[in-house]
């Protein structure tokens, strides 16, 4: 009664506290804020998201994903762990490729930019064409190529980032895929095949790539399947075995 203004202000503050959710604490909010600011932000979410007509990112570079300046102080092994931990929680394909292996892949991709890959299905195989465009490897099903030609849409794109290749000796890779046509383990199979055929030390294996690009009349589809089965990749992806693992 003696100080009605003070009483009213206290009542207003009390009502504000009641409106706040249970467990709310300004101190707790401050601590969380400081922890987030102190935590290293290696990855740049939401950047580099210009998408092409097919929904894939255009002009995607490493800076749009990773804070390159921050990781320059890290060792190759530390960067590998950061990359793997980040993408292992996402529904996608990723890899850290040794510089020497990527050098071999890159040199061969210049000479032989396309190849035919076989993806195991419930009955038989579905063939996909892989086409290099710079450091991107685009995949689309053979049926798309046969029906739509050069306008066939990409169903999987592997992005290779050589920015750290000279300094750290590694090339980072991640992917985007059309989930209407492929799931992660199928995309992984195609990514593994790209290394199988382009990074192999076995001359007979890479010879299939050369034949497809330069002597197409001699190329035999069944040779790809035979190589795939011999490597074990074909057996790993058989539907019955995939369901057993899940």
UniProtKB/TrEMBL annotation:
What InterPro entries does the entry give? ATP11
Basic and acidic residues composition bias: which ranges? 7-19
Q: Please provide, in alphabetical order, the Gene Ontology terms of the cellular component aspect for this entry.
A: mitochondrion
Instruction: Decide whether keyword Transit peptide is in the record.
Output: yes
Cross-referenced Pfam families: ATP11 (PF06644)
Q: Where in the cell is it found?
A: Mitochondrion
Q: Where is this region: Disordered?
A: 1-20
Which UniProt keywords are present, listed alphabetically? Answer: Mitochondrion, Transit peptide
A Gene Ontology annotation in the biological process aspect, one of them, is:
mitochondrial proton-transporting ATP synthase complex assembly
- Highest taxon, organism lineage: Eukaryota
What is stated as this protein's family in its record? Belongs to the ATP11 family.
In Swiss-Prot or TrEMBL terms, this protein is called ATPF1 factor
- This protein's species is Pachyramphus minor
Q: What is the lineage of its organism?
A: Eukaryota, Metazoa, Chordata, Craniata, Vertebrata
């Amino acid at each position: 009664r003696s100080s009605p203004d003070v009483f009213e202000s206290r009542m207003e503050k009390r009502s504000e506290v009641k409106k706040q959710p249970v467990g709310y604490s300004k101190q707790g909010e401050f601590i969380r804020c400081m922890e987030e600011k102190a935590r290293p932000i290696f990855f740049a979410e939401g950047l580099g998201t210009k998408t092409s007509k097919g929904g894939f990112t255009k002009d995607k570079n490493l800076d749009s994903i990773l804070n390159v300046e921050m990781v320059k102080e890290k060792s190759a092994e530390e960067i590998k762990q950061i990359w793997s931990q980040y993408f292992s929680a996402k529904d996608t394909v990723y890899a850290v490729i040794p510089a020497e292996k990527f050098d071999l892949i890159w040199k061969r991709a210049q000479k032989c930019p396309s190849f035919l890959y076989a993806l195991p299905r419930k009955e038989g195989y579905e063939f996909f064409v892989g086409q290099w465009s710079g450091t991107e490897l685009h995949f689309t099903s053979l049926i798309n190529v046969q029906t739509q030609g050069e306008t066939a849409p990409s169903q999987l794109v592997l992005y290779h980032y050589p920015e750290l290749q000279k300094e750290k000796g590694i090339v980072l890779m991640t992917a985007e895929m059309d989930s209407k046509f492929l799931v992660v383990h199928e995309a992984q199979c195609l990514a593994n095949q790209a290394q199988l055929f382009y990074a192999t030390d076995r001359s007979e294996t890479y010879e299939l790539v050369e034949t497809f690009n330069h002597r197409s009349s001699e190329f035999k589809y069944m040779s790809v399947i035979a190589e795939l089965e011999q490597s074990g990749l074909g057996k790993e992806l058989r539907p019955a075995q995939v369901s057993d693992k899940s």
